[in-house]
Amino acid sequence: MKNIIPFLLLSFFLNISCKKDATIEEKEPNNQKKVEDPISLCSSQSKKLETDPSILGLDISHFQGDIQWNDLKSDGVNFVYIKASEGTEFKDPKYTQNYASAKKECLYRGAYHFYETGKNPKKQAQNFIEAVNKLESGDLPPVIDLEELGIKTPVTKEVYETNVLLWLKIVEEKLGIRPILYSNTVFANRYLKHPEFSKYKFWIADYTKAKSPEVPYTWRNKGWIIWQRTDQKKLKGALGDVDYDIFNGNAEAFIKLIKK
């Protein structure tokens, strides 16, 4: 009996201690903040497409500095195109950060490449693919930016068309989605008249006060998918002037564009 009594006393105190610890463990979860499900947050953004009067976007690069993404959303922005690359070597230093932030805020996002003449189109496509890496759910189709500022060396229309079509073919095969062409009417009517271009959706830059842009010859029958209406929009979430866009279609048409 003398040996049993100390043993029973030890067991009694251990039992009290364990119950105390268990009580503490039960209370701890109540002090933790509830984390919202990011999937439900993004689904609310897709529902916003159905209620907004227009589907609005902008395109940005490192020139816009550090973006205040919450402010952009409060300004009614639904989607954003982010510069990923230019030519054969330049990769936008803000692309990775901008893409990750847009995704975190559940904004639909896409990447674009600024095309330059006098540089190998295969290497330009590879530069873009390296910058983007891969497309994820919620991504918009890749875009090639074709404009007068990209004419770095003299080039014939035929050579320009051949090289751009090669870029498009490589990017589509690698990323698994057909790219969109961005240009303006004057430039497109000069350099983008090959009938093969009509297979690609067209993003038009036309800073007019008219109700609709003037569509270039190649896309007369198909029209435009995005209209960049100004390059001087002021938004509190971005530094300086930004390019501001409107999507041509309803929420259902927009959702069909994005990668599932």
Identify the notable features of this structure and list them briefly.
single chain; 20% strand; TIM Barrel; 2 domains; disordered N terminus; globular; alpha/beta; 260 residues
Describe what this molecule looks like in 3D.
By secondary structure, the protein is α/β, with parallel strands linked by helices. It has two domains: 1-32; 39-257, TIM Barrel. Helices cover 38% and strands 20% of the residues. The chain has eight helices and nine strands. The chain has helices spanning 4-27, 38-51, 69-74, 95-104, 121-132, 157-175, 185-191, 251-257; strands at 56-60, 77-86, 90-91, 108-114, 143-145, 180-183, 202-205, 226-234, 241-247. Strands 1-2-4-5-6-7-8-9 form an eight-stranded mixed β-barrel, surrounded by four helices. Helix 5 (121-132) packs parallel to helix 6 (157-175). Residues 1-40 have low confidence and may be disordered.
Topology:
Elements: H1 4-27, H2 38-51, E1 56-60, H3 69-74, E2 77-86, E3 90-91, H4 95-104, E4 108-114, H5 121-132, E5 143-145, H6 157-175, E6 180-183, H7 185-191, E7 202-205, E8 226-234, E9 241-247, H8 251-257
Parallel strand pairs: 1-2, 2-4, 4-5, 5-6, 6-7, 7-8
Antiparallel strand pairs: 1-9, 2-3, 8-9
Helix pairs in contact: 5-6
First and last CA, distance? 74 Å
Radius of gyration, taken over Cα atoms and rounded to an integer in Å: 27 Å
Looking at this structure, what is the CATH superfamily of the largest domain? Answer: Glycosidases
Biggest sheet descriptor: 8 strands, mixed, barrel
Beta strand %? 15-25%
Spatial strand arrangement across the major sheet: 1-2-4-5-6-7-8-9
Instruction: Provide mean pLDDT, rounded.
Output: 83
Q: Structural class, from secondary structure content? A: alpha/beta
Poorly predicted regions: 1-40
Count of helices? 8
CATH topology value of the largest domain: TIM Barrel
- What is the count of distinct domains? 2
CATH class of the largest domain: Alpha Beta
